[in-house]
Write a structure and sequence with these properties.
GO terms for molecular function: GTP binding; GTPase activity. One of its GO terms (cellular component) is endoplasmic reticulum. Keywords: Endoplasmic reticulum, ER-Golgi transport, Golgi apparatus, GTP-binding, Nucleotide-binding, Protein transport, Transport. The protein is an alpha/beta fold. The protein has a domain of 101 residues: P-loop containing nucleotide triphosphate hydrolases (Rossmann fold). It is built from four helices and five strands; from the N terminus they run ββαβαβαβα. It has a three-stranded parallel beta sheet, with helices on both faces. A two-stranded antiparallel sheet has the order 1-2. Helix 3 links the parallel strand 4 and strand 5. The N and C termini lie far apart (42 Å).
């Protein structure tokens, strides 16, 4: 038997930001991979059990193509095939895109499933919706989490 004190245990690279948040009866493990290039490669290391993905877009107009590429990689990954996706963008400036513009910029036009209670049972559709909110508008944030919570079991 090996004494662990004699061996080096490799450290897992932690994302720059992570925390646990509880909203209602749902526990969220939040990870920010914003500064990591090709974040799709490391998501699996932190998301062994994933009930949903909240993809936060906080980018200037020049960075939307990169955000689109990352999101497309996640949406096409088999490990995320049936996982609900909430795409969320905070708009600190009036120049940020509307929900419709954000859908276009991220290549999601016609791919969202609808807000409110949408019955997707029996379809191949993955729950996917885009929400845009002002940082100070708590209701817009709550609407996004409420939408997502209906798909978390």
């Amino acid at each position: 038997m090996t004494d662990l004190s004699d061996e080096r245990i490799p450290e897992i690279q932690r994302p720059p930001y992570s925390r646990l948040s509880i909203i209602g009866r749902i526990k969220f493990n939040l990870y920010d991979f914003g500064e990591l290039r090709r974040a799709c490669r490391v998501w699996k290391d932190y998301c062994a059990k994933r009930d949903a993905v909240v993809y936060v877009v906080n980018a200037c107009m020049e960075q939307f193509s990169e955000a689109r590429g990352e999101l497309n990689d996640l949406l096409s990954d088999e490990d995320f095939a049936n996982v609900p996706f909430l795409i969320f963008c905070e708009t600190p400036e009036p120049s940020y895109p509307s929900e419709k513009e954000l859908c276009f910029l991220l290549g999601l036009t016609g791919k969202t499933t609808g807000k409110g209670r949408v019955k997707l049972a029996g379809t191949n559709a993955r729950p996917l919706e885009v929400f845009v909110a002002k940082p100070s508008n708590r209701k817009q944030h709550q609407d996004a989490i409420k939408w997502l919570s209906q798909y978390i079991k």
